[in-house]
Every structure is written in C-alpha cells, then in structure tokens.
C-alpha cells in the first residue's frame, strides 16, 4: 500500500506542477495579446490623428491645397506600404493615392498607370534621402 500512496502523491505533485505551468503560460499569452492589440490601436490612432490634423490645418485654403495636404499626409503615413507596392507595380495603397490625386481636380490619374510609372521610376522616387515632399512633388508632376 505505501507504493500506491507514493504514486498518488507523485501524480498530484505532477498535476499541480502542470497546472502551475499552464497558468503561467496562459497569463503570458493574455499579456502578449493585450500588448499587441494596444500597439495596433495606437498605430491606427496615430495615423488618423496625423491625417485629421493635416486636413484641418488647410481646410480654410483652396480645395487643391487641402487635397495636396491630405496626399502628403497619406504618403508620409503609408510610405513603406507605397514603397513596397511601387516595387511590385501596384496595390491598394497606390489605388488610394491615385484616388486622392484625382480629387485634386483636372488630373485623371489611373491607379494601374500610376503603379506602372512608380515601378519604372522606383530608384528615383525612393532613393535614400528623398523627403515626403519631394516624393509627392515627383508624383504630382507625373500626374499633372
């Protein structure tokens, strides 16, 4: 009988250790998920805030200036996605950029044409040291 009792004690100790490990791991997963969600919300909030400030700052100006400011804010916030899509020749961010630029007036920028042009001029558009203003000016010259 003493062997059976020792087996029960070892089994209970192993179960307790397993439950402790599960509790610690589960807690870590919850903290990790919460931190990831908080980071994502912060990133989205920052992008909306910057775009809103840019639009608000120029709302009293001409419509072309407001659209240009929104375009610049978009390019600044989505620079890496635009760079990646320009290398591929198109994508949803380039589509959005084309729509923003079409809202400026007489420009009739088609997203497929813009994507192909950005791909062909990738080295010039995304060379090291190119500012957002320079990038937007080059794109607007092409579209204009």
TrEMBL record:
Superkingdom as given in the UniProt entry: Bacteria
Amino acid composition bias (Low complexity), ranges on this chain: 49-61
Coiled coil: none
Signal peptide: 1-29
UniProt keyword annotations, A-Z: Signal
Stretches for region Disordered: 49-68
Protein name: DUF3015 domain-containing protein
Species: Salinisphaera japonica YTM-1
């Amino acid at each position: 009988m003493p062997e059976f009792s020792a087996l029960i004690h070892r089994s209970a100790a192993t179960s307790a250790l397993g439950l402790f490990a599960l509790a610690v791991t589960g807690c870590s997963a919850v903290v990790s998920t919460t931190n990831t969600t908080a980071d994502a919300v912060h990133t989205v909030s920052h992008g909306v805030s910057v775009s809103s400030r840019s639009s608000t700052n120029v709302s009293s100006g001409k419509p072309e200036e407001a659209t240009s400011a929104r375009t610049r804010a978009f390019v600044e916030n989505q620079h890496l996605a635009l760079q990646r899509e320009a290398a591929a020749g198109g994508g949803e961010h380039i589509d959005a950029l084309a729509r923003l630029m079409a809202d400026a007036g007489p420009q009739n920028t088609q997203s497929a044409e813009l994507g192909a042009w950005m791909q062909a001029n990738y080295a010039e558009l995304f060379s090291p040291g190119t500012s957002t203003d320079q990038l937007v000016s080059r794109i607007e010259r092409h579209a204009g």
